[in-house]
Amino acid sequence: MNHATQFRRDLHRIPEISFREWKTKAYLLEVLKGLKCEIEEVLETGVCAFFDAGKSKTLAFRADMDALPVSEETGLDFASTHPGQMHACGHDGHMAMLLGLAQELDQMDLSQLDHNVLLVFQPSEETVGGARFVCESGIFEKYNVRAIYGTHLQPMMPMHQIVSRPGELMARASEVTITVRGQSTHCAQPENGNDCIGAAAQLVTRLYEMERSLDPDQLRIVKFGMFHGGTVRNILPQSCELQGSYRCFQDELFHTMVQRSQSIMRDIEQESGCTIQFDYTEGYPPVINDAALFAQVRQLLPQLQILDQPQMIAEDFAFYQRKIPGVFLFLGTGSGIPLHNCRFNFDESVLQTGIQMDLSLLRTRLD
Predict the structure, then answer these.
(1) What is the DSSP string of 162-224?
(2) Which H helix or E strand runs over 313?
(3) CB contact at 8 A, 81 and 13
(4) What does the alpha-carbon distance between residue 257 and residue 276 come to, in Å, rounded to a whole number?
(5) Which of the residues are catalytic?
(6) CB neighbours of 184 closer than 8 A, spacing ≥ 6?
(7) pLDDT 10s digits, 24-77
């Protein structure tokens, strides 16, 4: 019997933000060192556990480790002991499921498997994308990893329901910051300055129009969640700033969105006399489930529910899929409490559902 619930509670007490997962790493090592696996440390705070079945190929499973800078308000007996940090995105559950799978593997006759198994406990999913650095570490080449699975708890889906889709699942996401600089003046004398807020308002309107003009069959988003400028009501400020997100599923479409945005900005600069600085990140790639591997998943998980539409959220698991075939799945908790919320929690019975799902996926046949 695995101890996933205890693992989850222990890990929930010690949340740590990206690349500072030192206590989390120590806990994982303490559990894994008692099992029949080879332990590899990656990216300073990451851990991999290799279960050798004596085969030439390896199947990987990934769990993310980092927490969020959120002050917990769940009132749980096992609430965070680290002020201002919380496992508000289910990563404690992801690690607990993978540790539970490790315990199950420890008791199995691995020679019956088609492959070896590598469990990847990955730091820094929430910030810089630790998956990219795991891919660059050489760990997959060392163990000849040929495919990888990942799972995320999903509070808006029914409890115990396993959900995914072939092909496009989650979007490429780019963080966008636009700074519009004008010439400050009293609002009663606008002719003496350049109105950066007016220019920024025009910019948002035209960028939204640009997004609506794109091919309706290609899912995408151009949205801004922050618009800040000025300190008093009657002075036109020197500058203002917009922060938002560009999301889509095709690299070509992303570059089209960027190029059209730049063209719009040049037009507004000429019209307003303001200058516009456009900064954006390359972001995480889109999560695109491998077709052949997904076909196996459908056979191995007859209970799998298929999403009609991709999700516009992002996940650094996409970096793995650019290196090897991979499939990402959602596991419903049914709580209705959003991810990243200070009251995030879930029924721990779903941990055993996740472990049983991974045990079924162990029957994957690798090319």
Answers:
(1) EEE-SEEEE-EEEEEEEEEE-B-EETT-GGGSB-HHHHHHHHHHHHHHHHHHS-TTS-EEEEE
(2) none
(3) yes
(4) 17
(5) 64, 126
(6) 193, 235, 236, 237, 238
(7) 999 999 999 999 999 999 999 999 999 999 999 999 999 999 999 999 999 999
